[in-house]
Amino acid sequence: ETGVTQSPTHLIKTRGQQVTLRCSSQSGHNTVSWYQQALGQGPQFIFQYYREEENGRGNFPPRFSGLQFPNYSSELNVNALELDDSALYLCASSTSGGAGDTQYFGPGTRLTVL
Amino acid sequence: AQSVTQLDSQVPVFEEAPVELRCNYSSSVSVYLFWYVQYPNQGLQLLLKYLSGSTLVKGINGFEAEFNKSQTSFHLRKPSVHISDTAEYFCAVSRMDSSYKLIFGSGTRLLVRP
Q1: Grouped pLDDT means (10 residues each) for chain B, 114 residues
Q2: Cβ contact B100–A105 (<8 Å)
Q3: Residue B89 near residue B35, CB atoms below 8 Å
């Protein structure tokens, strides 16, 4: 069962700008994770939120930040965009965020930084 | 730290032939194991996962995988592939004692030819 949506589908920004990506999780899923997938690579974990609190973070700088809202929506914000930020950004939701939980992925937002 | 190695970046195979996609992992702690599939311009979909119990795991679309602890492997197999199986396949692990992240391999592109 899926139902995770992301917006926008594609986005083009220039270096130094700021961007906000949005995700809508499945109802009842209290956990959302964000991943960055560079071209030709596997997804890399950015961070996870559980009930509106950051629950873990990968090896990404502080200019990557997030928010989770009570209505199962969430945001990924990236400040001071760099060329290397060009990637597919995926959000994934799960019920409790436990290690064995299935994470349901959205279709992603393709960000291009020029 | 954990890492996942997918030994083949691309696997070409003829329709109705069997296929095996290889995955090896490295971890100092116990992990759960996952296989995800990504069709073009889509997010990731879970094929199967190993949490405990029988080392042979059956998933969707006729795929199965076998966990081999001594070899630290989790190879994915299908006895007869279809054109529609053409996609990118990702192996991933998560620590049993951690709630928050999947660590992915770099992916294997399965190309099914008629």
Answers
A1: 92 97 94 94 91 92 95 96 97 84 95 96
A2: no
A3: yes
